[in-house]
Write a structure and sequence with these properties.
80 residues; mainly alpha; 4 helices
């Protein structure tokens, strides 16, 4: 599972799938399964930091429980 912040999701996803980011280079191809959009950058960065915490991982697991039950639980590696 990768958790990150960007102002351009399409470009960020493309660069990860093209192997341009060391944090995800060996985990391609990637699949986007969830994202949130914010109008305020500070709010977005705060939420990113929360999701990278232990409690944040629990919350994401609950949000995506049906997805994870069909494909299995991801490893806890993450990037920014």
């Amino acid at each position: 599972m990768y958790i990150g912040f960007t102002s351009d999701l399409r470009q960020r996803f493309k660069s990860h799938n093209n192997g341009l980011n060391t944090s995800t280079k060996n985990r391609r191809p990637l699949e986007l399964i969830y994202y949130e959009a914010f109008l305020n950058e500070h709010d977005a960065r705060d939420k990113e930091m929360f999701y990278k915490s232990g409690r944040g991982h629990e919350v994401l697991s609950k949000i995506l429980k049906n997805y994870f039950s069909s494909v299995g639980r991801p490893s806890d590696s993450e990037g920014s």
